[in-house]
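Let's practice the habit of predicting before peeking. Look at the sequence and jot down your guess about where helices and strands might fall. Then scroll down.
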Amino acid sequence: MPLLPTTLAYPASEIPKLEALRQLFQDWLHASVEAAPEMKEQIEGMVFDGFYPHYFSRKTRILFIGREAREIEGFNYLDLLHAAYRTGKRIGSQHLNCNLFHRRMLYMAYGLLNGLLEWKEIPDADQIGDSFATAEGVSFAFMNLSKFSNESEFWPSNWRMIGDAVRLATQTRNFIAEEVAILQPEIVITMNLGDYFSSFGQEVTPLASASRDVSSWTLMSNGHKALLLDCFHFSAPGKRDLDHYYLPIAEVVKLRFGG
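Done guessing? Here is the structure:
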């Protein structure tokens, strides 16, 4: 179970951040096994995440937080998804452009990192992927609330397992909040995770928002301040990329950061 990506090339300036994550994940793993030795096998299959190359040189640092990895126990999340975005262009059996979760992240990041573009100016996800995590392309950070992989063939989230993961991650130290602090995002986009806000930091303060689709908050994680936006899960069916995600997110970002 690799703590860090093994196939990605990072600029020298980002190596200290990788080392900080490596130490955090080692401590996280050790503390989890110590707290729940009966779960040792599952814990040793944890799926670690973090940031893609060139994230820290982007004009705005964006962190997406999902619920759980799916069917990739023992792998590094970033290795697998970087390959899917750049070359494979598939998520499982789906083309990247058809996968709601990943195409929406790529659309959101591209639009936000390029000055809140008009929707029609945002390329298809597979085109965004061509230069993903390069010096010229889109890059972002990603972490799951749970580091356990849901190996079930059924689509619903395994909330019992997610709860176990969060409990282990927060009972001695809040490793989740520490990861957020290392990543230093300016914008954190979560996916219907309001019940778990306390896991992300010590203070979560609501901000006024005119949107029914996105709630906005100030998040303090170990001294780091970020704008937290909570929206529908990115894999939610029946939601529209533009109306339920991009426009309300862009509206809040424009209000808080200008542009």
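How did you do? The two ends are 42 Å apart (CA to CA).
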